[in-house]
Amino acid sequence: xxxxxxxxxxxxxxxxxxxxxxxxxxxxxxxxxxxxxxxxxxxxxxxxxxxxxxxxxxxxxxxxxxxxxxxxxxxxxxxxxxxxxxxxxxxxxxxxxxxxxxxxxx
Length: 106
Description:
Mean pLDDT: 87
Structural class: alpha+beta
Number of helices: 2
Distance between the termini: 5 Å
Strand content: 35-45%
Helix content: 25-40%
Strand order of the largest sheet: 5-4-1-8-6-7
Largest sheet: 6 strands, mixed
Shape: globular
Order of helices and strands: EEEEEHEHEE
Low-confidence stretches: none
């Protein structure tokens, strides 16, 4: 089982060749930044793609944070379902304050 998060960043940084600007949303695993995007859904889409493109996963569970609305969850669900129809994807409101999305792939 693996989990990843997407959250907003507050200062300019660079990690593993990925430029992160103030206000970007980052997707990361542990301390490694995997993507930096201008909105939380795009960051989460990048995160899901990296997570699922590695293969060997059949279920994705995504917990949306307190600041995420239903339209954002629906948009992410549509993107994941279109890109990976073979995956069982579950989306639930986790209500976490810090992370916009937390994903677990099994």
